[in-house]
Structures are given as structure tokens and as C-alpha cells.
Design a protein that fits this description.
heterodimer, A: alpha/beta, six-stranded mixed β-sheet, 3 helices, about 35% strand, B: alpha+beta, Heat Shock Protein 90, about 25% strand
């Protein structure tokens, strides 16, 4: 299937969804003017991917900021991944955050509570 | 009240309810339309200032978040003075004050909301103010999973998150404006 790549802007994250190269990533800032509009292609892509996923999907979320409107759409993304996992495929969410950013780490743990998915927490300095 | 009186009214009300603000350093004082561009400019301005002043990174992140959420509330929910038939095409109008003191930052907003919306908002804020940390976390998750999110955002996630990130009760006032509108004043204090 065709890859989806959306370049980052000052208020929207980088999106990489590439089955061939086994790359799945959301990174940067997420506070789009129209959050539903922005995430619609992402959700559409993942819904298609759900019908023929890889045996093992590693999904990287490396956000430095997301607003509460984006938090709902991120949950929608994770819920599609949860469905893929429920079908018997392996899914790992790698939740990246700056070492100091406890709020972002807590946000990750909060999502891990809401969906039945394996999370790995990775911290980095700059 | 004429439109000119109203322009004065935003800051007059802020001074009336939060007069001790005048003693602090003002980072931003603004009264006008709150577009997405205005939101981006102000959040970036405050972020850069705090970075240059070597503020703690956690505090910078939190103040940034509070500003985004407060300004988006105005952008999406505040009333402006526009022709009724085109209301949906315009951003909300509001006043914003961001100030700094030795121990905390404050973000104060003032905007008009329709009377019926004010009643819903007040019920919601009265509901989340008494909640403790664990209850707020639970409520946030409930609203995230079941809340009604439209293209305007919503489900009150912004206020719940501000409430828990500041660990303080939301300090707000509703002030009658006319038969149709109510002023909504909100003061968010973030410890440094």
C-alpha cells in the first residue's frame, strides 16, 4: 500500500506511515487549526493498514507537545492499533519523551491504561 | 452598551476582579480577535521569553499548554461582534493578560459567551473544581473516551487538564453583560 508522509509544520507533527519500510511515526508538535481535518488521512491510512498489517508493528510516538483536542485523535489512532493487536498481530507503541518531561511520560502511561497495547517508554535529552 | 463601551469593558472587568495584577510584570496584554495565528504567535512569544530567562522546562511546557488551551477556548467558543448570519466564519474575540511574578505566572482571559453556554460552563467548572488529583485523572480519561469532540474541540478536556496541571482550583467569574451575553473571566495561576 502507498506510504503516507505529512511534513511537519509549526503546529502539526511529522507523520510517517510506511508499510514497506516498516516505519510508523508521529513526531513533533500537534495543535492543528482543525484537528479532525488533519488526522483524517492518518486514520484512513491506518484503517486500510488494519486489513493487511505486518506481523509486528512498531509505532513511534515522539511528540514534544499536543493539545487536548489532539489527545482525542491520538486515542483514535491507538484504538485502531489495538484492533490490529486484537486480530493477533504484534503491536508495540514506543512512547518517546524528553527526560525532564514528566507530563509527557504521564500522558503515555494514561494512554497505556486506556488501550490494551504494549508500551515501551523511551526518554532522551535533546 | 455600545461596542466602544464594551472594548473598554474587557479590561475594566479584569482590573475589577483581579486588581493586584497591576503590581506584576505584564508579558502580554491583548484585546481582540483570537485567530489560530494569534494563538501560535502568543504561545511562541511566551515560550521564547521564558527560555531566554532560563525558566524551568516543565514550567515552560505547562504555561505553553495553558495558553494554547485558553486561547483555543476563546477562538472556538467566545462571541464576537459580527453579523449574526456569518458568525461561524469569525474567530472569537477576547482579552488576554499574561503576567509574571516571583512565584508564579498568571493567565487571565475575558470573553463574552451566550447566556445558555455560560450556564453549561458554570455547571461544568463547579463540577471539576472540588475533584482531587485521582478523580481529575479519571474524569479526564472518561471525557477522552466518551466525550463529545467536534471540530470545535470540546468535552471540557482543556479545563480538566489546566485544573490538574496547575493543581489549583479554577478561579472564574461570570458577569452579566446584557440579556443575551455574559462575560466569562478566568484566572489560571501556575506556580514556578
Amino acid at each position: 500500500m502507498a506510504a503516507l508522509r505529512i511534513e511537519p509544520a509549526d503546529d502539526t507533527p511529522l507523520i510517517v506511515l510506511n508499510r514497506e519500510e516498516e516505519q510508523f511515526e508521529i513526531s513533533g508538535k500537534s495543535m492543528p487549526e482543525d484537528v479532525i481535518d488533519f488526522y483524517q488521512p492518518v486514520l484512513n491510512w491506518l484503517t486500510t493498514y488494519r486489513s493487511a498489517p505486518l506481523d509486528r508493528t512498531i509505532f513511534d510516538i515522539r511528540l514534544i507537545y499536543f493539545n487536548t483536542a489532539s489527545s482525542k485523535l491520538l486515542l483514535d489512532v491507538l484504538m485502531i492499533l489495538e484492533e490490529i493487536s486484537e486480530q493477533g498481530h504484534e503491536v508495540l507503541v514506543r512512547w518517546h519523551s524528553m527526560t525532564y518531561d514528566e507530563d509527557m511520560q504521564e500522558a503515555g502511561r494514561e494512554y497505556a491504561d486506556m488501550v490494551d497495547l504494549d508500551f515501551e517508554y523511551i526518554t532522551y535529552d535533546k | 452598551m455600545s461596542m466602544m463601551d464594551t472594548v473598554k469593558g474587557y479590561f475594566a472587568l479584569i482590573n475589577e476582579y483581579y486588581s493586584n495584577l497591576l503590581e506584576k510584570e505584564i508579558i502580554i496584554a491583548y484585546d481582540g480577535d483570537v485567530t489560530h495565528q494569534v494563538m501560535k504567535a502568543f504561545t511562541s512569544l511566551v515560550e521564547q521569553k521564558l527560555i531566554s530567562e532560563h525558566e524551568k522546562e516543565t514550567v515552560i511546557r505547562r504555561l505553553y499548554h495553558i495558553l494554547v488551551e485558553c486561547l483555543q477556548n476563546i477562538n472556538r467558543h467566545a462571541e464576537g461582534f459580527y453579523p449574526k448570519e456569518h458568525e461561524e466564519d469569525y474567530p472569537g474575540r477576547g482579552a488576554l493578560l499574561v503576567s509574571k511574578s516571583d512565584d508564579y505566572y498568571r493567565v487571565i482571559t475575558a470573553n463574552l459567551v451566550r447566556k445558555e453556554h455560560a450556564a453549561v460552563l458554570q455547571t461544568f467548572l463547579d463540577k471539576i473544581n472540588p475533584l482531587n488529583r485521582a478523580e481529575l485523572n479519571e474524569y479526564y480519561k472518561t471525557q477522552l473516551m466518551n466525550g463529545d469532540l467536534s471540530s470545535k474541540g470540546g468535552a471540557g478536556l482543556g479545563f480538566i487538564d489546566i485544573r490538574r496541571k496547575t493543581s489549583r482550583k479554577l478561579d472564574f467569574h461570570f458577569v452579566d453583560f446584557d440579556g443575551e451575553y455574559v462575560f466569562f473571566l478566568c484566572n489560571v495561576t501556575l506556580s514556578r
